[in-house]
Write a structure and sequence with these properties.
The structure is a single chain. By secondary structure, the protein is α+β, with helices and mostly antiparallel strands. It has 3 domains: 1-81, RNA polymerase II/Efflux pump adaptor protein, barrel-sandwich hybrid domain (OB fold (Dihydrolipoamide Acetyltransferase, E2P), Beta Barrel); 101-153, Irregular (Dihydrolipoamide Transferase), CATH 4.10.320.10; 157-365, Chloramphenicol Acetyltransferase. It is 28% helix and 27% strand. It has 8 helices and 19 strands. The strands form 5 sheets. Strands 9, 12, 15, 16, 17, 18 and 19 form a 7-stranded mixed β-sheet that branches.
């Protein structure tokens, strides 16, 4: 038997989220083959199999969080007739006495680890009453009863989002500028276009055009180093049941309108289906987030660090204007641009918005 252990990838982080298993239970694996991909707050990493065999058990599933040293899965030798539960239980019994009283990883049977995760219990806080201090099911449930009413511990993707949002606000000087763009002409062009595409695709395409003219909006600021990027890797925030994901359209400026529409739709679907390539959710240089479908107008999007800017799209609405003494109905979209004032001043950010608005109000310039 071989355990798939979560190693330490970053000195600053104890936990990683499981984002993709390349093998399923019962699959044959070979030593050196990539088994699982995990994500810390800043990077995606791969874990390889350390032995040949069969992946008998996946203990920590996709979307769950593991701590350095946790057993993510079990590889059994081909032909082994010992059950995983028996082997793991014996491993627990043999090693529990060797562990210090205060530890970042607690060895328990897979069924108890699953119970703890389901109940949002940190096993390092549970006092074991079994032989040699071994944690039992009764200990876990008793711990939950004692903690009832004390609130819910953040875990998984929600905890990752919470950490990233807090760090974003702590490490950048964020300012939001807002403006309307009249999209009356764009609405007509979209309606008569040979291929039906979402509003989001048209607007995102205009965003890419505007970024190309203002590359100071495109890049990263990290560890006091500002890197302006020639490549426009556009993050498109996507809401899921598990939380917010930001899949990335690489080299977005090299796409045509229709290919960009297809790529954005494919990425969004892969996120919803939980089949997104881990490499497709990192490396963005500018992000667009859209709350228009929820009836939101202006808002203050938080920068997807280490980027330096993010654009929020609100609800497209009709409004009335007076031209030559006549009342006309037109359409507009609210735009909310948040930027890091450490890198970008208010006037350059406003010029970017002006360029974007010009594209949206004159759609003949988009293609």
């Amino acid at each position: 038997m071989a355990e798939v252990i979560l190693p330490r990838f970053d000195e600053n982080y104890e936990e990683s989220s499981i984002i993709f298993w390349h093998k399923q239970e019962g699959d044959t694996v070979q030593k050196g083959e990539v088994l699982v991909e995990v994500q810390t707050e800043k990077a995606v990493s791969e874990i390889e199999a350390e032995a040949d065999g069969v992946l008998e058990r996946i203990i920590v599933k996709r979307g769950e969080v593991a701590t350095v040293g946790d057993v993510l899965g079990i590889i059994a030798k081909t032909g082994s007739d010992a059950s995983v539960e028996e082997v793991t239980e014996s491993t627990v019994a043999a090693t529990i006495a060797e562990e210090p009283a205060k530890r970042s990883f607690v060895r328990v049977a897979p069924r108890l680890r699953k119970l703890a995760k389901d109940l949002n219990v940190d096993l390092t806080e549970v006092q074991g009453s079994g032989s040699g201090g071994k944690i039992t099911e009764k200990d876990i449930r008793k711990f939950v009863e004692g903690k009832s009413g004390s609130g819910e511990r953040l875990t998984g993707i929600r905890k990752t989002i919470a950490t990233r949002m807090r760090e974003s606000l702590q490490n950048s000087a964020q300012l939001t500028e807002t403006a309307y763009a009249d999209v009356t002409k764009l609405a007509i062009k979209r309606e008569n276009y040979e291929k039906k595409m979402s509003w989001n695709s048209w607007i995102v395409y205009a965003v890419v055009k505007a970024i190309k003219e203002h590359l100071y909006m495109n890049g990263t600021y990290e560890n006091d180093v500002w890197k302006q990027s020639e490549e426009i890797n556009l993050g498109v925030a996507t809401d899921t049941e598990e939380g917010l994901f930001v899949p990335v359209v690489e080299n977005a400026d090299q796409h045509s309108l229709e290919s960009l529409d297809k790529e954005v739709e494919a990425l969004a679907q892969s996120v919803q289906d939980k089949k997104i390539d881990p490499k497709k959710i990192s490396g963005s240089t500018f992000t667009v987030t859209n709350l228009g479908a929820f009836g939101i107008h202006f808002f203050t999007p938080i920068i997807n660090t280490p980027e330096v800017a993010i654009l929020g799209l609100g609800k497209i609405e009709t409004y009335l204007v007076i031209e030559n003494g006549q009342v006309l109905e037109r359409m507009r979209i609210p735009l909310s641009l948040t930027f890091d004032h450490q890198i970008i001043d208010g006037a350059p950010a406003a010029r970017f918005l002006q360029t974007l608005i010009a594209y949206l109000e004159n759609p003949e310039k988009i293609e």
